[in-house]
Design goal:
By secondary structure, the chain is of the alpha/beta class. It contains five helices and 14 strands. The protein has an eight-stranded mixed beta sheet with strand order 5-4-1-6-9-10-12-13, sandwiched between helices. Strands 2-3 form a two-stranded antiparallel sheet. Bound molecules: cytidine-5'-monophosphate.
Length: 218
């Protein structure tokens, strides 16, 4: 082996938003630059892991040594995640749209009457499905972007989704699209709050923690 901490380990990362078409020219999306997820994929690859990055629509270059699969919708992301299994660790960073519409085949036209009503259908929860999958990765990590009561929501989310860890971040400031992040790591053992750092440094620190948890030497 290369002597790197995660050599021989398979890692799966989701990143970016999903786009759910309303019609051929419009979509519903979450706000996500993909920067934190791409930084984590890069750090995992640097640590020697075999990394599959399932990316929603973002304007970012593929990190060195990472296999990237581009998707648009939550349904496509769920299928790509399933196809990428097995994995030793999965880090679900994507801001998946919670709802989709039926998706009109033709552009919806302004009629001069009442505006159209969107009827929303719930998307599959990719993280929760992976937690229940027979091929669940040994270490399953979710993210939680919150604007208030960050840690309380993260503790509840960890239990509810069946993740091992939840990385919680307060996105009420300028985290969205920015280069820095301050996170809380929620595990079975409690909560660790990390100081504000660049998204690259948060990624490297998280990957060191992952290597530790997978029993690799760091
Ligand atoms: O419930 P919420 O969207 O806040 O949960 C965030 C976590 O769940 C993230 O790890 C995100 O990638 C994941 N998620 C998912 N599929 C969804 C919604 C969220 O994998 N449909």
């Amino acid at each position: 082996t290369s002597g790197k901490a995660l050599a021989g380990k398979r890692a799966l990362v989701t990143a970016g938003p999903t786009h759910e078409p309303i019609d051929p020219v419009r979509y519903i999306a979450n706000r996500s630059s993909g920067k934190q997820g791409f930084a984590i994929a890069a750090a995992l690859a640097e640590a020697g892991a075999d990394v599959t990055l399932v990316a929603g629509p973002v304007a970012l270059a593929t990190p060195a040594g990472v296999s990237r699969i581009d998707v648009e919708t939550a349904a496509e992301m769920a299928a790509a995640v399933e196809a990428a299994l097995p994995a030793d660790v999965a880090v679900m960073v994507a801001a998946v749209a919670d709802w989709r519409t039926d998706g009109a085949e033709q552009k919806i036209k302004k009629s001069g009457d009442a505006p159209p009503t969107l009827s929303l259908i719930e998307n599959p929860d990719i993280l929760a499905s992976l937690a229940a999958n027979a091929r669940r990765p040994a270490l399953l990590i979710g993210f939680a972007a919150e604007t208030q009561d960050v840690m309380t929501h993260a503790v509840v989310k960890r239990a509810h989704k069946g993740a091992d860890w939840i990385v919680a971040n307060d996105v009420s400031g300028d985290v969205m699209g920015g280069d820095r992040n301050s996170v809380h790591i929620v595990t079975a053992g409690g909560i660790e709050s990390w100081p504000s750092a660049s998204k690259d440094d948060v990624a490297r620190r998280l990957v060191a923690r992952i290597a530790d948890a997978l029993g690799a030497s760091v």
